[in-house]
Write a structure and sequence with these properties.
- The protein folds into 3 domains: about 5-55, Uridine Diphospho-n-acetylenolpyruvylglucosamine Reductase, domain 2 (2-Layer Sandwich); about 60-175, Uridine Diphospho-n-acetylenolpyruvylglucosamine Reductase, domain 3, CATH 3.30.465.10; about 180-275, CO dehydrogenase flavoprotein, C-terminal domain (Enolase-like, domain 1).
- The protein contains 11 helices and 14 strands.
- It has helices spanning about 15-20, 35-40, 80, 95-100, 105-110, 110-120, 125-130, 150, 225-230, 240-250, 255-275; strands spanning about 5-10, 30, 50-55, 65, 70-75, 135-140, 145-150, 155, 160, 165-175, 180-185, 195-205, 210-215, 220-225.
- The radius of gyration is 19 Å and the shape is globular.
- Bound molecules: flavin-adenine dinucleotide.
């Protein structure tokens, strides 16, 4: 199928984009890499009057390294992470995950902001960013606000994006030299969307340990204190798979096979963290 007719605008800065997006007289859709929006337009799942292409806005491609974090513009692509144009502050976690997203043509265009806002539960960025403690900053008619990545995703294909708002940047904390992380994506072929994701990060120097189960039917399950799953994490690994299964069950994943697949993904992520 072909999309319905729509007008197209390519503003040069965020202020101009927000003016266009805030036009309540017509339905407006933001376009970043168009890797998810394109198919939705073609299938007429979305039928906007106006598409606002934000890829020409320099502020959204900016990368700013600070003492304890890095701030990455919404239009930075998966390939930018893969090729280390974004300095790695995560001991290899984000470049490694970027490499496993789809295939190179998709990674060249797909953006971190588009992926998070599209809020596909099977997507990779939302899970790994929740594990490393990433945040998003939005700007709109009411000003700017910042929230945890996992809180930005409300459910399957639903982000906490208010009318007239756009995602401006993603902030990633710098992991300490002693931090460990693991990511396991269960999928049939390399580069496919995941059936189950397990991811884990422990950073003793900062006193943080987080475990995430992704590719659920909705938002990822985020365990903000992963010590309960692995003990103190300092010496030998003790993964409590029964506790993990109970926590997953409590989150509403009651199908035994589904639960087992997701708990196994988390176990493998934790094993990778301690064997890498
Ligand atoms: C064949 C194929 C395989 C794929 N495999 C994977 C995979 O294995 N793992 C994975 O994680 N992803 C995968 N993807 C998805 C890919 O990562 C997309 O890049 C991503 O989902 C959307 O990013 P985008 O920049 O293309 O956003 P777009 O398609 O341009 O936009 C997506 C949505 O976000 C909105 N949006 C975009 N940017 C902003 C912003 N700054 N502020 C507010 N709203 C915004 C748009 O309005 C739209 O609703 C795959 C895609 C394809 C086509």
């Amino acid at each position: 199928m072909k999309p319905v007719n729509f007008d197209y605008a390519r503003p040069g800065d965020v202020a101009a984009a927000l003016t266009l997006i805030g036009d309540e007289s017509r339905s407006v859709k933001i376009m970043a890499g168009s890797q998810s929006l394109g198919p939705m337009l073609n299938m007429r799942l979305v039928q906007p009057d106006l598409v606002v292409d934000i890829t020409g806005i320099a502020e959204l491609r900016k990368i700013e390294e600070r003492s304890d974090e890095i701030v990455v513009g919404a239009c930075v692509t998966h390939a930018d992470f893969e090729d280390l144009r974004v300095p790695d502050v995560t001991r290899g976690a984000l470049p490694s995950v970027a490499r496993g997203i789809a295939y190179r043509a998709v990674r060249n265009r797909g953006t971190i902001g588009g992926s998070i806002t599209h809020a596909d539960p099977s997507a990779d960025w939302i899970s790994i960013l929740a594990a490393v403690g990433g945040k998003v900053t939005l700007r709109g008619p009411a000003g700017s606000r910042t929230l945890a990545v996992e809180d930005y995703m409300l459910g399957a294909l639903e982000a906490d994006l208010q009318p007239g708002e756009m995602l401006i940047s993603v902030t990633v904390p710098k992991l300490s030299p002693s931090a460990r992380w693991g990511y396991y994506k269960s999928c049939r072929k390399t580069g496919e969307f995941a059936h189950a994701i397990g991811t884990f990060m422990v950073d003793p120097e900062r006193g943080v340990s987080r475990a995430v189960i992704g590719a659920t039917e909705s938002r990822p399950f985020v365990f903000k204190d992963a010590k309960q799953l692995i003990g103190d994490g300092k010496s030998e690994l003790r993964f409590d798979s029964q506790l993990a299964a109970d926590l997953v069950d409590a989150e509403g994943m009651t199908d035994p096979l589904n639960r087992q697949t997701h708990v196994a993904a988390l176990r493998r992520a934790i094993e990778r963290a301690y064997t890498a």
